[in-house]
Design goal:
- This protein has about 270 residues and is an all-alpha fold.
- The protein folds into 2 domains: about 1-40, no CATH class; about 95-270, Up-down Bundle (Rhomboid-like fold), CATH 1.20.1540.10.
- About 50% of the residues lie in helices and about 0% in strands.
- It has 11 helices and 2 strands; from the N terminus they run ββααααααααααα.
- Strands 1-2 form a two-stranded antiparallel ribbon.
- A hairpin with a 6-residue loop joins strand 1 (about 10) and strand 2.
- Helix 2 (about 95-110) packs antiparallel against helix 5, helix 5 (about 145-165) packs across helix 6 and helix 6 packs parallel to helix 7.
- The longest helix has 25 residues, at about 245-270.
Amino acid sequence: MSHPDLFVVCKNCQAEVSPYITECPYCGTRLRKRAPKIDRPDAPPSKAPRRPPRPGSGARGRARPSSKGGGEQTPRLGKLRSGEIPGIRGEEHRKPWATIVLVALSFGLWFALAFYVRSDFAIKALGGEPWRFLSASLLNDGTAAQFAAVVGIGLFGWLIERRRGPIAVVLIFLLCGPGALAAASAVDASSLVFGSHGAALGLLAAWLVPVLLTRRDSDSDDDADLLGVLVIAIVLLLVPLLSQGSALAGIFGAALGAVVGLGIGAAGRSRG
């Protein structure tokens, strides 16, 4: 009787996954063509190949009773280990609720302040009330700037959430959004500090750095379109030119996101 390993390591994201699956639930990488066969503990060893049923015998798909008198016994995996997720494909395809909430808050606040002078709102963010940094990190001056930043938050927030979970998305947003605005205002107190491009650049960097580290450390290929990511990054860096947002906040957001990405990559290599 063959016994598969307790877990296997994904070559793309270095995560420990169950040996009974064909695709990595974290990044979707194809691990094998077919799942390993699960031997039933109550099945007797086969001595000779079974003959196919004769036509008209009526033996078609009868359930084999188990030792407890029930139906056919279904093989079950053990309890989830630390770091594993329930299900095989459910986490990858579930709705990214944290990202949806952030996008809804950003667009909702932007529409609510459609007739408000956003430059005045940005100056208030320097007034010493910490919660205003959160509000200012959801706004951009101009439709094009707001759309570009929210697309970045939605895309890379979803990519991170399906692999790392909703808490990671919220923490990275808070660090690279309000955190970057606070750092920018501390460096240059006379500048206008507002804009969600810093949070979008932070999420982009936090997703991109582990991908680059994985490509450097292994020969495995992935489906990441780095040319498209580069175009999005350039657009987000140019957002302050389209509005009155802080370019320094965007730089701080990208730098903080890159630091988070390095930590994620280091944690993935240590698990592998």
